[in-house]
Amino acid sequence: MAKKIAGYIKLQIPAGKANPSPPVGPALGQRGLNIMQFVKEFNAATQQMEPGTPTPVVITAYTDRTFSFVTKTPPNTYFLLKAAKLEKGSTAPGKSAPVGRVTKSQLVEIAKTKMQHMNANDVDAAVRMLAGSARSMGLTVVEG
C-alpha cells in the first residue's frame, strides 16, 4: 500500500549547505518532519556538486511524518551568469547597455545539462529558451 501524501514543499537550497535555519527548518517543522534527517540526507546527496550551487528541491511529505525528496538541476540564470562570468544580471535589461555576453556553444552546453528538467522537446528549443532568459538578464547572445 502506498503512503498517503500530506503535501509538497519546494525550496531552493545551496548545495551541501542545508541547515535547520530558515527557510528549511520552518518549512519542514510545520509538517512535523525530522529536520536534521533531511539536512543530513540533502547535504550527502549534493556533496558531489560545487558547494553553494543553488539547488531546487521538491520534498514530498507523507502523513506518517516521513519524507522523500528529489533534487533538480540549478536554475537557468545560475548557468547563464556562470557562463558570462558575472555576479548578477542587468537591473534594467533592454534599456541599459548589455552587461555581458554568452555564446551559442555555451547555451548548447547548458541546454544539454538542463534538458531533463526543461519544458522543451529538443536541444534547439532549449537553446532558444535559454537565449530568451539571457536577453531578459541583459546578456547578449553571440555566435561561436
TrEMBL record:
<dbReference type="InterPro" id="IPR036796">
    <property type="entry name" value="Ribosomal_uL11_N_sf"/>
</dbReference>
<keyword id="KW-0488">Methylation</keyword>
<dbReference type="InterPro" id="IPR020784">
    <property type="entry name" value="Ribosomal_uL11_N"/>
</dbReference>
<dbReference type="GO" id="GO:0003735">
    <property type="term" value="F:structural constituent of ribosome"/>
</dbReference>
<keyword id="KW-0694">RNA-binding</keyword>
<dbReference type="InterPro" id="IPR020785">
    <property type="entry name" value="Ribosomal_uL11_CS"/>
</dbReference>
<dbReference type="Pfam" id="PF00298">
    <property type="entry name" value="Ribosomal_L11"/>
</dbReference>
<dbReference type="GO" id="GO:0022625">
    <property type="term" value="C:cytosolic large ribosomal subunit"/>
</dbReference>
<dbReference type="InterPro" id="IPR000911">
    <property type="entry name" value="Ribosomal_uL11"/>
</dbReference>
<keyword id="KW-0699">rRNA-binding</keyword>
<dbReference type="GO" id="GO:0070180">
    <property type="term" value="F:large ribosomal subunit rRNA binding"/>
</dbReference>
<dbReference type="GO" id="GO:0006412">
    <property type="term" value="P:translation"/>
</dbReference>
<comment type="similarity">
    <text>Belongs to the universal ribosomal protein uL11 family.</text>
</comment>
<feature type="domain" description="Large ribosomal subunit protein uL11 N-terminal">
    <location>
        <begin position="9"/>
        <end position="67"/>
    </location>
</feature>
<keyword id="KW-0689">Ribosomal protein</keyword>
<dbReference type="InterPro" id="IPR036769">
    <property type="entry name" value="Ribosomal_uL11_C_sf"/>
</dbReference>
<dbReference type="InterPro" id="IPR020783">
    <property type="entry name" value="Ribosomal_uL11_C"/>
</dbReference>
<comment type="subunit">
    <text>Part of the ribosomal stalk of the 50S ribosomal subunit. Interacts with L10 and the large rRNA to form the base of the stalk. L10 forms an elongated spine to which L12 dimers bind in a sequential fashion forming a multimeric L10(L12)X complex.</text>
</comment>
<dbReference type="Pfam" id="PF03946">
    <property type="entry name" value="Ribosomal_L11_N"/>
</dbReference>
<feature type="domain" description="Large ribosomal subunit protein uL11 C-terminal">
    <location>
        <begin position="72"/>
        <end position="141"/>
    </location>
</feature>
<dbReference type="InterPro" id="IPR006519">
    <property type="entry name" value="Ribosomal_uL11_bac-typ"/>
</dbReference>
<keyword id="KW-0687">Ribonucleoprotein</keyword>
<comment type="subunit">
    <text>Part of the ribosomal stalk of the 50S ribosomal subunit. Interacts with L10 and the large rRNA to form the base of the stalk. L10 forms an elongated spine to which 2 L12 dimers bind in a sequential fashion forming a pentameric L10(L12)2(L12)2 complex.</text>
</comment>
<protein>
    <recommendedName>
        <fullName>Large ribosomal subunit protein uL11</fullName>
    </recommendedName>
</protein>
<comment type="function">
    <text>Forms part of the ribosomal stalk which helps the ribosome interact with GTP-bound translation factors.</text>
</comment>
